[in-house]
Write a structure and sequence with these properties.
The structure holds 3 protein chains of 3 kinds. By secondary structure, chain A is α/β, with parallel strands linked by helices. Chain A has 7 helices and 15 strands. Chain A is 18% helix and 29% strand. Chain C has 3 domains: 212 residues, 3-Layer(aba) Sandwich (Rossmann fold), CATH 3.40.50; 190 residues, 3-Layer(aba) Sandwich (Dimethylsulfoxide Reductase, domain 2); 128 residues, Barwin-like endoglucanases, CATH 2.40.40. By secondary structure, chain C is an alpha/beta fold.
């Protein structure tokens, strides 16, 4: 049987990042405390540790309901995990008012994450827009950790404007190892663009980014607004990347995350169960 | 499979009433049919009429508490219904239950109710007004795998009783029944075949299904059709296979401590807000897209592949309840004429 | 599981669809389903109807009387509530006289409740200060049709839609506001009935027909006069009907002689050709029906607009026959009934004029007390008099004027000025928040009674569940209050008793009983000894005033036009998934999800010029108020016109609307005022009116 029941989590900490966004740190409350509810013994690996990059969890803010978020750091042995959350609707607005120490709920991990077997050791172009960088964070970290000499990784990151850019610390860290291009939709008159920064959308830099590769990029990972991803995917196909080597992370409203409530449909598929990552080929 | 002859239907009803809560379709003064509980004292005649509301609410409740949160942890609130029988359920609705059994196979709430239920199916020997069950392989005769017991009317108020599985056999244990000859089954087939012949021409529907699956229905057709969708949720509410739901939290602070209940409730994919995200991004903002998805879900090959049948069971309820005159018959006709 | 299915009538709009309430063993309302064989709705409901259970079961329901002390409400007993109200009412009447007190009843409550309310006002309080919300929807209908035809109600029936050859929908959006009737119109159109839509907005029906006259706001009379001009000039009118059934045709013909289609092109924005085509189609149709709504009534020219439509129908003889008529689509489930019951200051039940001595004597005798001769105040009159301190105590039920009435700030300050303000409601509305005493009202599912729908069909409402908590039906608490004030004049054992007393005094209801209503699935008035089975079509042989009257009317422009400071026109509309002030529909998680709390529909061209994005936060300002909400791009509103639904207390359109009134009925011009719209910062969440006011 599927479970609709969240595990209790503690809101451990949060730090602001960009405009109206925060990194939240949560801790699964009962993971290491054997109790009537949790008969797992201490040493066994809990199922949350199976979380793969690109998978998501349902955050339960009890007085409001549930919504889907991705991990920026997956649950560790102690049951601690992180997520980047933007204040958007009722649930996140309420979350932003909650104090540290509050008990909330989480269900997961859910869905099909990034296809690691198809990504490993490949030359990869990553295109992310706005909050879309969040589901890529721990993947980029692990790709960098395992980067081989012949392998190249390039990231294009687009944001509305300078204030809306997220994950600055992470991007600074990655900058040491991989090439990053930033695009800004709007800049004000006084602002001077820094290196590898341009005005426009990520699409405008795809050609430049592809030219960075010594051996051509063979794989692409996309995450962000659907219109942007669709245009980018078409452009990448035109540039010779196979449609089954282009992967998109799709976002949908979700209530159950287990393929029942129907909200996240995408043609005949459900994003929660069959996604959230799909190859461009699958979406044709 | 076991076949019996039943002289007196009330014997079976009384027998089942001793073990189960018994629900049966009853017609009121206004000729409206609905599922009503029967008792030993109140026991109405069995009728082969389609109730306006299907039986899906018995398993997938219209509103249902999923869990409560007490401030520390979350607790499942599974229903614990007493054993019950749906007595005289028609083939289209049985097919829909079988469809939902598959969809909700791993849903604990659905299954908690479903496990407690005995399904006594009733063959239709006359076509109903809006129905087209033969077209979508859902009737008029009860499909064996969809019911535990099948009733088939014979002449002189006699009945053929077919037990299709152990659950059915267990339920009739202790009831004195005469086994009967298999040729009654042949006779049943004949009667049902004759009934099938009496259904009106279904070429509108079969042709429209083909057009739908051959990509011959344009986006602009759906857009124009969707002008008439008022987003009332009538079709999805009455459709026996529709299963979309929403969730909400209800906080009860009346006592000294706060209890939060999470509830799920029937939703409709035809509402504009169904897929709208907090960012206002809405993949199905256009009514045409939503209406198209609804019909694709009922008749599309991609769903047929998953469930081994169409999502539509041919009950015709959407035709009757749609204020915008775009129920199944109207839509299929328009697809044929205009798409 | 559902244990019982109770047949009753949907509590939302004036169509009066048949609904069944599903009740479980514990007496809880589970959900609803349509009545399959109801004469109008035939197994259909709109999204509001389907969501009824959410409104009734809402955890927001009031379950006990509340008393306000400073800014907070505290629960009190019914006895304490009644004593407090009775004492204060008596004191105020002693000090300031009966003109200082009044009652506003509800078009949502039953006929029985409304009859009791006007009797309470007239017999117990001794005042004609009794009114309800028809003031802001269809008072021009009552006034206009009364003058032209002699009766202010829908002349024909819903079933006529399937018997007509042409439907002329004028300033009405039936698929959104009267969805099931709108569905009948769509059905008839699909079967070949001609459909002509006259509306400044591209309504759903307008999208289905090539015949859409997208007239400029408030140019109805100019357009209708031009239609009449063509019909008369071309001799397309029904001469026999005009000669035998009407009077004043000569003057009308003279009046419109020079109003050519060309002469009104710029006023109306409709091409002369389209006007001619429409005139031809309407006059040549064998049977043609006019439907109209608040796009006709909510103007300073509301009454004259209604009169013009009557002129049009009379000229072509499209009245008094099946498939014809002048058919106002009335808003609330029982607005017809509330009018019929005499919840208007100038008439007793059955439209018997208060000013007539004979009627005063009839009611004095029937009620066993002398009724006052003094004229009563309208609801706006009461709020105005409250402002000046002349009006001191108001009992109000089932209405939310703070959200739905024009010029919200004025209403609010008037209500605050009252010495005693009592509100009976289902939930804590914006109006209830201003009350001194709040009484918990029983919902339609919790009471017996009758509603009268827009086609004059009186239908039986049946109790399905017990009143929630200590909630009471309206006539029950009015009766208790009368007793508390020492009056035994309201003395009934059951709703049926109330109905029977009313029917005996109300000629059109004369031959009705509960049993007959149930047996006939409702009865359409007049139902008298001569017409014991009711009347589906009015004016078949003659008009109540003998001959119908042609009345010449002139185009009156909207009161407030645009200028440099307020360059856009604002109109109001309704959304099909909400109803009135939203106090019921907004409890449904499904309906509430459909829009953000408040929207402004704006043409993308206007939006672009103002640098506004789809769904972006915007501000809207008129000469009277300021609100913030979200912009919704829509090609359904023409350039230069923006539109706002009035359901949302967070962003009430009535902060902005004009209070200029129809001189006859005092109907405010809710359909047109000048505004200025501006973009707010991109990430700003629109402030609710409550937040804006606290910020002040």
């Amino acid at each position: 049987m599927l479970s609709h029941i969240p595990d209790a989590i503690e809101l451990v900490d949060y730090i602001d990042d960009g405009e109206q966004a925060r990194h939240y740190q949560f801790r699964l409350v009962n993971i290491n405390k054997p109790s009537e509810k949790n008969t797992n013994n201490n040493t066994a690996k809990h199922h949350w540790q199976d979380a793969q990059p690109g998978q998501f969890f349902m955050l339960n803010v009890p007085s409001i309901g549930e919504a889907a978020f991705t991990f920026t750091e997956p649950p560790n042995e102690q049951g601690e995990f992180r997520a980047l959350i933007r204040q958007m609707g009722k649930l996140t607005t309420t979350l932003f008012t909650l104090p540290k120490g509050d008990i909330l709920g989480a269900r997961g991990p859910f869905g099909r994450g990034w296809p690691l077997e198809k990504i490993n050791k490949k030359n990869i172009i990553i295109i992310a827009g706005g909050c879309g960088l969040a589901p890529l964070v721990n993947l980029i970290d692990s790709l960098i950790d395992n980067l081989t000499a012949s392998q190249q990784l390039v990231l294009i990151y687009g944001a509305q404007n300078k204030q809306a850019q997220l994950l600055t610390t992470e991007r600074e860290r990655w900058q040491q190892h991989i090439k990053i291009y930033n695009s800004l939709d709007e800049i004000n008159d006084q602002y001077t663009l820094v290196e590898n920064e341009s005005q426009g959308t990520p699409l405008d830099i795809v050609d430049i980014a592809l030219a960075t590769f010594i051996k051509p990029a063979t794989t692409a990972l996309l995450c962000g607004p659907e219109i942007m991803m669709n245009s980018a995917a078409k452009k990448l196909v035109d540039n010779g990347i196979a449609s089954d080597d282009i992967f998109l992370a799709i976002e949908r409203r979700m209530h159950c995350a287990i393929g029942l409530c129907g909200h996240c449909y995408l043609n005949e598929r459900y994003v929660c169960k069959n996604g959230p990552t799909f190859s461009w080929q699958e979406l044709q | 499979m076991e076949i019996y002859h039943l002289d007196d239907l009330s014997l079976l009803q009384q027998h089942l009433l001793a073990q189960y809560q018994l629900y049966q379709v009853v017609k009121n003064d206004d000729k409206q049919c609905s599922w009503q509980q029967q008792t030993k004292e109140r026991n109405e005649p069995l009728i082969a009429e389609l109730p306006q509301s299907s039986a899906k609410d018995f398993f997938f409740a219209e509103h249902e508490n999923l869990l409560i949160f007490n401030g520390e942890y979350f607790q499942e609130t599974l229903p614990t219904p007493a054993p019950f029988v749906l007595f005289g359920i028609l083939s289209c609705d049985l097919t829909a239950i079988s469809y939902q059994d598959q969809f909700f196979k791993d849903d604990p709430y659905y299954q908690a109710r479903r496990q407690q239920c005995l399904l006594v199916g009733l063959d239709c020997i006359k076509p109903c007004q809006q129905g087209f069950c033969p077209t979508v392989d859902a009737g008029p005769g009860v499909r064996e795998h969809t019911a535990d017991i099948i009733l088939h009317p014979l002449e002189n108020h006699q009945w053929l009783l077919i037990s299709t599985n152990d659950k059915g056999t267990e339920a009739i244990k202790g009831l004195s029944l005469k086994t009967c000859h298999w040729h009654f089954l042949t006779q049943r087939d004949l009667t049902l075949h004759q009934c099938e012949q009496e259904f009106t021409d279904d070429s509108d529907i079969t042709q429209a299904i083909d057009k739908l699956n051959n990509g011959e229905v344009s986006d602009s057709f759906w857009q124009q059709l969707a002008v008439q969708c008022l987003g009332c949720s009538g079709c999805t509410t009455l459709c026996p296979t529709c299963s979309c739901y929403g969730t909400r939290s209800i906080t009860d602070e009346s006592e000294d401590k706060k209890v939060i209940t999470q509830q799920r409730f029937w939703d409709s994919c035809l509402y504009e807000g169904f897929q709208r995200e907090a960012s206002f991004h809405n993949p199905s903002a256009e009514a045409g897209k939503r209406v198209q998805r609804f019909w694709q879900h009922k008749f599309g090959n991609e769903f047929f592949a998953e469930f081994n049948r169409h999502g539509c069971v041919g009950c015709g309820r959407c035709e009757q309840t749609c204020p915008g005159v775009i129920g199944v018959h109207s839509v299929m006709k328009r697809i044929n004429n205009n798409a | 599981m559902c244990a019982d299915l109770v047949k009753t009538i949907c509590p939302f709009c004036g169509v009066g669809c048949g609904i069944c309430l599903k009740v479980d063993e514990q007496g809880q309302l589970l959900s609803v389903e349509p009545q399959q064989n109801h004469p109008i709705s035939q197994g259909k409901l709109c999204d509001k109807g389907w969501s009824t259970a959410y409104a009734i079961n809402s955890d927001q329901r009031l379950t006990q009387p509340l008393k306000r002390i400073n800014k907070s409400f505290y629960p009190i007993s019914w006895q304490e509530a009644l004593t407090t109200i009775a004492d204060e009412l008596t004191a105020i009447i002693d000090e300031s006289g009966s003109q200082a007190v009044g009652v506003i009843s509800s078009a949502r409550a039953s006929n029985e409740d409304n009859y009791a309310a006007q009797k309470f006002a007239r017999a117990v309080l001794k005042t004609n200060n009794i009114d309800h919300c028809a003031r802001i929807c269809h008072s021009p209908t009552v006034a206009g049709l009364k003058q032209s035809l002699g009766s202010g109600a829908m002349t024909n029936s819903a079933k006529d839609i399937l018997e007509t050859d042409l439907m002329l929908v004028f300033g009405a959006d039936p698929t959104e506001n009267h969805s099931i009737l709108g569905g009948h119109i769509m059905q008839a159109h699909a079967q070949g009935t001609e459909l002509i839509v006259v509306d400044p907005r591209v309504t759903r029906l307008a999208k289905l027909t090539p015949m859409h006259l997208q007239l400029k706001l408030g140019s109805n009379i100019a357009l209708i006069n031009a239609l009449l001009h063509v019909i008369i000039k071309e001799q397309w009118f029904d001469q026999r009907f005009v000669e035998s059934r009407t009077q004043g045709f000569e003057q009308l013909a003279k009046h419109v002689k020079d109003i050519t289609p060309e002469s009104v092109e710029s006023t109306t924005g409709v091409s002369a050709e389209l006007i001619r085509t429409t005139a031809r189609a309407y006059s040549h149709a064998k049977r043609a029906m006019i439907f109209y709504g608040m796009g006709i009534t909510q103007y300073v020219s509301g009454t004259n607009n209604v009169i013009s439509l009557a002129n049009l129908a009379l000229t072509c003889g499209h009245i008094g026959k099946a498939g014809t008529g002048v058919n106002p689509l009335r808003g609330q489930n029982n607005v017809q009934g509330a009018c019929d019951m005499g919840c208007l200051p100038n008439v007793y039940p059955g439209y018997q004029a208060v000013a007539e001595l004979e009627n005063q004597e009839k009611f004095s005798k029937a009620w066993g007390t002398k009724v006052t001769q003094q004229a009563g105040l309208t609801s706006l009159g009461m709020t105005k008099a409250a402002q000046s301190g002349d009006f001191r105590a108001l009992l109000l039920f089932g209405e939310d004027p703070v959200v739905t009435d024009p010029d919200q700030n004025h209403v609010q300050s008037s209500l605050k000025n009252l010495d005693l303000f009592v509100v009976a409601e289902l939930t804590m509305t914006e109006t209830a928040k201003l009350a001194d005493i709040i009484l918990p009202a029983a919902s339609f599912a919790e009471k017996d009674g009758t509603f009268t729908n827009c086609e004059r069909r009186v239908q039986k409402v049946n109790q399905a569940i017990a009143p929630l908590g200590e909630a009471k039906g309206d006539w029950q608490w009015l009766q208790a209050l009368a007793k508390e004030m020492g009056s035994k004049l309201l003395n009934w054992q059951s709703s049926e008793d109330v109905f029977n007393e009313m029917a005996a005094l109300t000629p059109p209801y004369q031959a009705m009983t509960y049993q007959k209503i149930t047996d006939n699935s409702g009865l359409q008035w007049p139902c008298t000894n001569e017409t014991p089975n009711g009347t589906t079509i009015l004016h078949q042989q003659s008009f109540p005033i003998g001959r119908a009257r042609f009345i010449c009317v002139n185009q009156v422009d909207i009161d407030e036009s645009t200028d440099d400071n307020y360059p856009l026109l604002l109109t109001t509309n309704r959304l099909h998934f909400h109803y009135g002030c939203g106090s019921m529909t907004r409890n449904s998680p499904l309906l509430e999800r459909e829009t953000p709390p408040g929207v402004l529909f704006i043409n993308p061209i206007d939006a672009k010029a103002l640098n506004i994005n789809h769904q972006a936060p915007v501000s809207i300002k008129s000469r009277r108020g300021y609100v913030e909400t979200r912009a919704m791009f829509s090609d359904d509103v023409p350039v230069g016109l923006v539109s706002m639904p009035y359901h949302f207390k967070e962003a009430p359109s009535n902060q902005l609307t004009n209070t200029a009134q129809d001189p006859v009925t005092k109907m405010p011009e809710l359909k047109a005022c000048a505004v200025v719209v501006a973009a707010l910062a991109k990430d700003q969440v629109p402030k609710t009116i409550q937040q804006l006011q606290e910020g002040k």
